[in-house]
Write a structure and sequence with these properties.
With about 575 residues, this protein is of the alpha/beta class. Helices cover about 50% and strands about 10% of the residues. It folds into 4 domains: about 5-25 and about 215-380, Rossmann fold, CATH 3.40.50; about 35-195, Rossmann fold (3-Layer(aba) Sandwich); about 385-450; about 545-570.
Length: about 575
């Protein structure tokens, strides 16, 4: 049976603006990450060649034009396309940069891409002061002014201009070039003067570009197990979606089952194929912090647009900013641990916020977040099989892919207890590392009564997130008494408690706390069962008679025995 749950494409509900979008001209996979614009006679054989080599050594794909070009020639459409397809444009301003129409037209194209598709622009001021660029003064200003007065014969013949038209043409160029110079010189960049700090400057520039390109992958695990096959399944699905639509994919499953790990692996694998990418981790937790909501919106802007100065005052204004900044960009956005619809509305409120062929991945414990056609498909997370479980556990318990021979049997007992849950396998494996087999046996015996605290806290997040006390009471009742019972029988019993069990059980299923098998029987992961029972035990660790529910035979017999003696004593 497939792990994907498909929703009808025609439904409009939450995403009532789901429409086909026009193809973004820069949506194709980019060949070059950095475009270098420079004045050849000033820096080709010195600074620019050193910068180019350093970028290549850092694994960055760079476009640099090595051709000898006629002075004043117009840049061709192919070069405009190259600029548009680059993620970052680095402009090396030097004294004679503005004497070349070619360089100035590159500048115009770069600034147009910055304005229309948010291309990152990084100016480098090589032996020239930024203020000279901004105001066209000093040596740079003289060169620029001289160039404006010299319209080449080639341009004259091509345009068949007359004297009066020459003046217009010069004013026309001046009207475009001057604002472009003012704007680009206001960008944060690097100043390299007198070549004394050239090597250090190149190192800083390369490091900054690496950061802007987001070349660092998210950490997953030293020895990921079972991740690669699941990543292949997900990527194969994403690759099958060839339309220009924005595609939303949900990943649903209980806490600790590996949703975040899988989402990180997909992000690392395909993220660089997009114009921008952002991974928002622990949204449930961050959302509750002061200014956490706008901080998440600002994080998206920084990750994708590399804008550090954007300050968002409210989630409502953030919605507008996100739409305006991202609507022409093909992005990969991962929203990790979403637990309310308000979070979705603030972080991806509409498909129109994103450029065509963008991909949004949402991880959640709550299926209700994904229903109502809010996403196109849901990937239901699967537990690890026995072989995967043993390997993952062994990496943490033995620092090897398989157990030690004398620990093989008891390792299988721990794996069985973990029930294919990666979180438990990792936590218990790390806890048991380098311990004696007698200690292992003691830990296993203790786990029958008291679950591991780290696993317990992680799983309890889902319980704490339930809407009201009746849902919590239903969960605790199922954990203690009703696992394996027919769903309708349980509803009949709990109706007498005024718990509204029909809707309550549905919520528990959506929250990945309870499952219903093919025979309509209620099921629950053993560790969720233990988590629920521990919640009850914690209320009165020493006195079972003070607990709201009893399920352990020894406790039941003890309490009943004490009650009987007390009753007899009172009766006398």
């Amino acid at each position: 049976m497939s792990s994907f749950i498909n929703f009808p494409e025609s439904a409009q509900s939450f995403w009532n603006d789901h429409t086909s979008m026009k193809k973004n001209p820069s949506e194709e996979l980019r060949i070059n990450e950095v475009f270098l614009s420079f004045r050849g006679k000033d820096t080709r054989a010195s600074f620019t060649s050193h910068l180019h080599a350093s970028l290549q050594n850092a694994g960055i794909k760079v476009y640099i034009d090595d051709r000898a070009l006629p002075k004043g020639d117009y840049i061709p459409e192919s070069l405009k396309k190259t600029i548009k397809e680059s993620r970052i444009s680095v402009i090396v301003f030097s004294k004679n940069y503005a004497e070349s129409s070619w360089c100035m037209d590159e500048l115009l194209q770069i600034m147009e891409c910055h304005k229309t598709i948010g291309q990152v622009v990084l100016p480098v001021f090589y032996n020239v002061d930024p203020s000279e660029i901004r105001h066209q003064t000093g040596e740079f200003g003289k060169v620029f002014q001289n160039h404006l007065t010299k319209i080449s014969e080639r341009e004259h013949k091509r345009l068949l201009v007359e004297k009066s038209y020459k003046l217009w043409f010069r004013q026309h160029l001046e009207g475009m070039w001057r604002p472009a110079l003012r704007t680009v010189a206001s960008h944060a960049g690097f100043v390299v003067l007198n070549s004394k700090n050239e090597n250090e400057a190149i190192k800083d520039i390369v490091e900054n570009i690496i950061r802007l390109l987001d070349k660092t992958d998210l950490f997953i695990a030293n020895n990921p197990v079972g991740v690669e096959s699941r990543v292949r399944d997900m990527i194969q699905f994403l690759d099958m979606q060839q339309s220009n639509d924005v595609v939303l994919l949900g990943m649903w499953g209980m806490g600790g089952i590996g949703k975040t790990t899988l989402a990180k692996a997909i992000y690392n694998k395909i993220g660089r194929n997009f114009e921008g990418r952002s991974f928002l981790a622990n949204i449930r937790e961050v959302w509750q912090q002061n200014t956490g909501q706008v901080n998440l919106q600002e994080q998206i802007i920084f990750d994708i647009c590399k804008e550090t100065m954007t300050k968002i005052q409210s989630t409502e204004s953030g919605n507008i900013i996100l739409r305006d900044r991202l609507c022409h960009k093909r992005v990969l956005l991962v929203l990790d641990d979403v637990n309310t619809l308000d979070q979705l509305k603030a972080l991806c409120g509409s498909r129109k916020w994103f450029g065509s062929r963008s991909r949004i991945i949402i991880t959640t414990r709550d299926m209700h977040i994904l229903r109502g056609n809010r996403v196109d498909h849901v990937y239901k997370m699967k537990k690890m099989d026995e072989n995967e479980s043993i390997e993952l556990f062994s990496w943490h318990a033995f620092k090897h892919s398989s157990p030690r021979e004398d620990f093989a049997g008891i390792s299988r007992n721990v794996v069985e207890y973990s029930g294919g849950l990666p979180l438990a396998l990792e936590v218990l494996g790390s806890y048991l590392f380098d311990r004696e087999i007698t200690e292992w046996k003691c830990v296993l015996e203790k786990l029958k009564r008291i679950p591991n605290d780290q696993v317990h806290k992680k799983l309890k997040i889902s319980y704490d997130g339930l809407n009201d006390d009746t849902e919590k009471e239903i969960f605790l009742d199922i954990a203690c008494f009703f696992i394996g019972m027919n769903r309708y029988d349980v509803i009949h019993i709990l109706n007498g408690c005024e718990f509204y069990p029909e809707i309550g059980i549905s919520v528990l299923v959506e929250r990945s706390l309870v499952t219903v098998d093919e025979c309509n029987r209620l099921r629950m992961h053993d560790l969720l069962r233990d988590m629920g029972r521990e919640i009850i035990r914690e209320k009165s660790p020493k006195d079972p008679e003070e607990r709201s529910r009893l399920w352990f035979n020894k406790d039941v017999l003890g309490v009943l025995s004490e009650q009987t003696v007390s009753t007899l004593y009172t009766f006398r």
